[in-house]
């Protein structure tokens, strides 16, 4: 089993920045691809970004390209999501997840954190 714990969410004004962290424990996370997802009230969970186990490859959904950056530090078992130029439509609960496979479908991910709330005020 792997446990994932997110932190770093909060309330920020439009144009502001936040950095989310996801710390893994239990099963080694360094061999897993990691992803960030988000879910706004009344909406389905959507893919935001993912990073390969080595950190060499990243992928973003179009709406966050150029504003968000995913990274990882395997020595610290931690994945980050740097979010800049935040918009009200970025408001959601953000989840990190781990997967052996490489994809954007939440069904491909084996382990999930409990989520952290991000609220962007206009």
| Morphology call | globular
End-to-end Cα distance, whole Å, is 40 Å
- Portion of residues in beta strands equals over 45%
Provide the succession of SSEs: EEEEEEEEEEE
Percent range for helical residues?
under 10%
What structural class do helix, strand and pairing data support?
Answer: mainly beta
Strands, count: 11
- Report the biggest beta sheet as strand number plus sense, adding barrel if it closes: 7 strands, mixed
Low-confidence regions:
none
**What is the gyration radius calculated from CA atoms?**
13 Å
Supply the number of helical segments: 0
Mean pLDDT: 95
Topology, element by element:
Elements: E1 2-7, E2 10-13, E3 18-26, E4 33-39, E5 46-51, E6 58-60, E7 68-73, E8 78-83, E9 92-99, E10 111-112, E11 116-121
Question: Could you characterize what this model shows?
Answer:
This protein is mainly beta and 122 residues long. Helix content is 0%, strand content 52%. It contains no helices and 11 strands. It has strands spanning 2-7, 10-13, 18-26, 33-39, 46-51, 58-60, 68-73, 78-83, 92-99, 111-112, 116-121. Strands 2, 4, 5, 6, 9, 10 and 11 form a 7-stranded mixed beta sheet that branches. Strands 1-3-8-7 form a 4-stranded antiparallel beta sheet, with no helix packed on it. The chain is globular and about 40 Å long. 33% of the residues are buried. The model has no long low-confidence stretch (mean pLDDT 95).
Keywords, separated by commas or semicolons:
122 residues; mainly beta; seven-stranded mixed β-sheet; four-stranded antiparallel β-sheet; 11 strands; 52% strand
């Amino acid at each position: 089993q792997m446990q994932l714990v997110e932190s770093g969410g909060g309330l920020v004004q439009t144009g502001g920045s936040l950095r989310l962290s996801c710390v893994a424990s239990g099963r080694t996370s360094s061999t897993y691809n990691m992803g960030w997802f988000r879910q706004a009230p009344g909406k389905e969970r959507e893919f935001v970004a993912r990073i390969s186990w080595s950190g060499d490859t990243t992928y973003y959904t179009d709406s966050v390209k150029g504003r968000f950056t995913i990274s990882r530090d395997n020595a610290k078992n931690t994945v980050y999501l740097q979010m800049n130029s935040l918009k009200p439509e970025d408001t959601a609960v953000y989840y990190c997840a781990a997967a052996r496979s490489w994809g954007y479908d939440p069904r491909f991910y084996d382990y999930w954190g409990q989520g952290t709330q991000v609220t962007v005020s206009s």
